[in-house]
Amino acid sequence: MITYLLAWNPRRAPWRERTGLLRRLEAGLPAVTSWGMLSKSIRPGDRVFLIRLGVPPRGIIASGSAVSGAYLTPHWDPEKRRQGKSSRCVDIAFSRLLDTDAAPPLSVDDLDTPPLDEMHWRIQGSGVLIPAHVAAALESRWSAHLERTGAGSSADI
C-alpha cells in the first residue's frame, strides 16, 4: 500500500478543526478534512500518517486515508494568500486521531528505532512517501501503540 507522512507543527499553524474531528470519531462519524502537502502523486485510498512536530509531544498522532487526489487551493497562510499564492491539498479521512492531552503519540524516539529509523521523520514539508517496508513496520508499531495506550484497536486500516 502506498503510504505518505503528513506533518503538523502547532507552532506554524493552529489546527482549529482538531477538536471537532476528535468528537466526530468518538461518535463513530467520518472525520474528513483537507491537509496541505507537497506531493502531487497521492491518490484516493493511499494510506496516511500524521506526525506532530515542533511542539511536544512529538510523534505520530493520526492515521487514515486519502479520499481525493492532490488539488490546489488558496494558501492556508493569510499573508501568502494575500500574495495570491496557493497550496496543494488532499482530503483525508482520519480513522484514528489521538487527543494528545489524554494519550501520548507514537513518539519520535520510538520512530528512531529499527526498522523505522530508515525513514527521516523530522520532515520539513508534508506529504513525504514512506518506503513500503517502513510503512509495514509503522502499521504494526502504530497498532501496538493504540492497543497499549487504550486509544484504539488494531483494526485500523
Tags for this model:
single chain, 157 residues, alpha+beta, ph1033 like fold, 8-stranded mixed β-sheet, 4 helices, 8 strands, 30% strand, disordered C terminus
Element string (H = helix, E = strand) = EHEEEEHEEHEH
Structural domains: how many: 1
Q: Based on CA inertia axes, which overall geometry fits?
A: globular
Strand-residue proportion: 25-35%
Cα radius of gyration in angstroms? 15 Å
| Main sheet specs | 8 strands, mixed
What is the end-to-end distance? 11 Å
Number of helices: 4
**Overall pLDDT, averaged?**
93
Compute the number of strand runs: 8
The structure class reads alpha+beta
Low-confidence stretches: 153-157
**CATH class label:** Alpha Beta
What's the SSE blueprint?
Layout: E1 3-8, H1 18-26, E2 31-36, E3 47-52, E4 59-66, E5 71-74, H2 78-82, E6 86-97, E7 106-107, H3 108-111, E8 128-130, H4 132-149
Parallel strand pairs: 1-3
Antiparallel strand pairs: 1-8, 2-6, 3-4, 4-6, 4-7, 5-6
Task: Report on this structure.
With 157 residues, the chain is an alpha+beta fold. It has one domain (3-149): ph1033 like fold (Roll). Helices cover 23% and strands 30% of the residues. The chain contains 4 helices and 8 strands. Strands 1, 2, 3, 4, 5, 6, 7 and 8 form an 8-stranded mixed β-sheet that branches. The longest helix has 18 residues, at 132-149. The protein is globular and about 45 Å long.
